[in-house]
Amino acid sequence: MIDEEHKTIYFDHSTMALFQACKEKCRLGGVRGYRPLTPRFALDFGHAFHAAIAAYYDALAGGYHDSTGNWLPFNRKVAENIEVNECIEVSPTQHAQAAFLRDLGHTDAKLPVTLESEDRRSIERGLALIDAYIYRWRNEPYDNLLDAQGAPYTELGFKYYLTSFEGYDIIYVGFIDRLMWNRATARPVVFEPKTTPQALS
């Protein structure tokens, strides 16, 4: 995005990766706003998996983010005169799987349903991958970092000045998925779950 008033050019990782892959595709998508008509299974799957892992770690922190991004602890009333602890117990894994399915519904994704589908990304594979991810990292040395209200630090925006070019400041922007506390090093760490099979630059 170019801010002519303040002579600033903002760009993020997605824009940079698209530009490196194909300058014309970056121009059509980033500048002209065109979107492909064919379904993009990889993006829909990755977005839903990201939502699932976020819901898992939110559940470990004792709550969830509602559709407007507000943090709600589980001990709040979810219905009139009904406390969460009086309801059926729901595990963090079940919260993650529900978030995966909910996100696919919100984005109107058209993923195949079964494991036997020719595409590597299907609903059944997504649910199985969530189980596998949680099992694989069950003993990880990370805890949620919580703010004063008990909410985890998630989707933290940042901007970083890189250089100036022909009178414009070039600013790299983005979001950090989550900050966690590493018990082994006693330091905060940036936590970024990914589903891409490609190495990240």
Could you explain how this protein is built, in words?
This protein has 201 residues and is α+β, with helices and mostly antiparallel strands. Helix content is 33%, strand content 23%. Strands 1, 2, 5, 6, 7 and 8 form a six-stranded mixed β-sheet that branches. Strands 3-4 form a two-stranded antiparallel sheet. The radius of gyration is 20 Å and the shape is globular.
Q: Any key phrases for this structure?
A:
201 residues, alpha+beta
Number of helices: 5
Strand count, sense and barrel status of the largest sheet are:
6 strands, mixed
Q: Which class best fits the helix and strand makeup?
A: alpha+beta
Sequence of secondary-structure elements: EEHHHEEHHEEEE
| Rg of Cα set | 20 Å
The mean pLDDT is: 83
Q: Would you report the number of β strands? A: 8
Overall geometry comes to globular
For the termini, the CA-CA separation is: 22 Å
Strand content: 15-25%
List low-pLDDT spans. Answer: none
**What's the helical proportion of residues?**
25-40%
Write a brief caption for the model.
The chain is an alpha+beta fold and 201 residues long. Helices cover 33% and strands 23% of the residues.
Architecture blueprint of SSEs:
Blueprint: E1 2-3, E2 8-11, H1 13-21, H2 23-31, H3 41-60, E3 63-65, E4 71-73, H4 92-106, H5 123-136, E5 142-144, E6 154-165, E7 168-182, E8 187-191
Parallel strand pairs: 2-7
Antiparallel strand pairs: 1-2, 3-4, 5-7, 6-7, 7-8
Helix pairs in contact: 1-2, 3-4, 4-5
